[in-house]
Amino acid sequence: DAGVTQSPTHLIKTRGQHVTLRCSPISGHKSVSWYQQVLGQGPQFIFQYYEKEERGRGNFPDRFSARQFPNYSSELNVNALLLGDSALYLCASTTGTRTSYNEQFFGPGTRLTVL
Amino acid sequence: AQSVTQLGSHVSVSEGALVLLRCNYSSSVPPYLFWYVQYPNQGLQLLLKYTSAATLVKGINGFEAEFKKSETSFHLTKPSAHMSDAAEYFCAVSEGYGGSQGNLIFGKGTKLSVKP
């Protein structure tokens, strides 16, 4: 079975540009979460989506947005890129129910460099 | 608010020695606790989890952790380090049953080096 996939693997942008990162969850998983991992830090929660609805949002500016599609894949969009947005962006998928523990499975990440 | 503190950003052990990585948490609700491992240029892999069952949790690759509510700790141990254990380890907490399990709060990580 394929795990969580993310594209692209690496990306270089300049300040002020816009970027779209993509994530495909494990088959059967309905929930996707996004995390930002700055070099030398632990991942920070950005968004969670479940069946196309936003279920949670971390402390990130409105330049960050996301959406989930009917096939449960997801996009993370970042507008007006800043140097500080350079990070590894991780996507995690889970079955998503609230009634039991759901393990999150992480993808390999997209390395974004903003110059 | 939930939080995680990992003591020691870098731990170095000799091959065959005990590995001890420390994690303390803060949570106002019964927590779920996790340890993840990250190898260079890779995503996160779950080592083990505590979800309010047994307080001593066994994970993959010989790692285990003990949930101690009185000490608000969830330290990760392995009796004998192997060279392949060299990686970065993250402790994480989330709200338990009924909470938003998609919102993991991570510590800053501990980089484990293993000397031959």
How is this structure best described in words?
The complex is a heterodimer of chains A (115) and B (116). Chain A has strands spanning 5-7, 10-13, 19-24, 31-37, 44-50, 53-57, 64-68, 74-78, 87-94, 105-106, 110-114. Chain A has no helices and eleven strands. By secondary structure, chain A is mostly beta strands. In chain A, a hairpin with a 6-residue loop joins β4 and β5. Chain B starts with a strand and ends with a strand. Chain B has strands spanning 3-7, 10-14, 19-26, 31-38, 44-50, 56-58, 64-68, 73-78, 87-95, 105-106, 110-115. The interface between A and B is medium-sized, with 31 and 26 residues.
Task: Give a nutshell description of this structure.
The complex is a heterodimer of chains A (about 120) and B (about 120). Chain A has about 120 residues and is mostly beta strands.
Q: Main beta sheet of chain B, described?
A: 6 strands, mixed
Class based on secondary structure composition and strand pairing of chain B? mainly beta
CA-atom Rg of chain B in angstroms: 14 Å
- The overall pLDDT of chain A, averaged over residues, is 92
How much of the residues of chain A is beta strand, in percent? Answer: over 45%
Which ranges of chain A are low-confidence, i.e. pLDDT below 50, for 5 or more consecutive residues?
A: none
Oligomeric nature of the chains: heterodimer
Largest interface: A-B, 31 and 26 residues
Q: How far is the N terminus from the C terminus of chain A?
A: 37 Å
Query: Please, what is the average pLDDT of chain B?
Result: 90
Distance from first to last alpha carbon of chain B: 41 Å
Q: Helix and strand succession of chain B?
A: EEEEEEEEEEE
